[in-house]
């Protein structure tokens, strides 16, 4: 046998090692490309992907808006009291029937207020939360507002007459849809929680403008100083204490509050 055959034969044998070598390499190396798909089934079909241009529609959008006047299941917002804070065209003074006025609701409102509102309006609603402080600092910079910061002072919710006279429904509406420079929280805070916050803002206002007459005669309010920021309990209401706004509040708003009469 001529040597050339042996030589070529060896080369061919070596070539046989190539496919397993390639497979081993491919299998051991991460690769972001799609794997080779030999049997297609229905994995690849002609279709329009989200946000792709679609010549079938006049506006060229593949994603279609809902049909006008279509209402998704569970999304009929017809209850004006519950969803807008309005009864017969007037701001509601009471909670809607779906939300109960009790201590649990106020507690929930306090917790949600502290999470969502206190950053700007302050824990006690005085309008000087940490974001507000920082923004005012940036605006007051001697060389002009830092990075062109523009800021409107967050409202004092407990002493600004513009706010304290507002019925609960109006507060609810502001929380839901926002007002002027304040964004709405309707998409972030569920409806019931927004009512709880509105009720809590009323409780904050009342607690910081409390009168001795708010404490039922002969009631000794529990000493739980420190449980809520900015709360000082009146230990002996019978002593005719004259509360000063901002630093004296009734520690348990529920004790001086009757159903729905915020
Ligand atoms: C990012 C800061 C910020 C947050 C968070 C915020 N607010 Fe405000 N809020 C403002 C500012 C600023 C104004 C004043 C807007 C203006 O006058 O243009 C305002 C105004 C208000 C007013 C006054 C409305 C009126 O009729 O003038 C109410 C009530 C109020 N906020 C309640 C809330 C409640 C309740 C929350 C929590 C759900 C909240 N805000 C969260 C910044 C904020």
Walk me through the structure.
With 262 residues, the protein is mostly helical. It has a domain of 133 residues: Orthogonal Bundle (Cytochrome Bc1 Complex, Chain D, domain 2). Helices cover 34% and strands 2% of the residues. The chain contains nine helices and two strands. A two-stranded antiparallel ribbon has the order 1-2. Strand 1 and strand 2 form a beta hairpin. Helix 4 crosses helix 9. It starts with a helix and ends in a 54-residue tail after the last helix. The C terminus is likely disordered. It binds heme C. Heme C binds next to helix 5, helix 7, helix 8 and helix 9.
Give the SSE map.
Layout: H1 3-16, H2 18-28, H3 80-84, E1 86-87, E2 90-91, H4 103-116, H5 118-121, H6 130-139, H7 161-164, H8 168-177, H9 191-208
Antiparallel strand pairs: 1-2
Bound molecules: heme C.
Which cofactors or ions or other ligands sit in this model? heme C
* Broad shape: elongated
Number of separate helices: 9
* Count of beta strands: 2
Radius of gyration from CA coordinates: 33 Å
Strand content: under 5%
Spell out the helices and strands N to C.
HHHEEHHHHHH
What is the average per-residue confidence, as pLDDT, rounded to a whole number?
83
User: Which CATH-level-2 architecture of the domain at 80-212?
Assistant: Orthogonal Bundle
How helix-rich are the residues, as a percent range?
25-40%
What's the end-to-end separation, in Å? 110 Å
The largest pleated sheet is described as: 2 strands, antiparallel
Uncertain runs are 231-262
Structural class: mainly alpha
Top CATH class of the domain at 80-212: Mainly Alpha
Oligomer: single chain
Classify the fold: give the CATH topology of the domain at 80-212: Cytochrome Bc1 Complex, Chain D, domain 2
* CATH H-tier superfamily of the domain at 80-212: Cytochrome c-like domain
Q: Give the strand order, joined by hyphens, for the main sheet.
A: 1-2
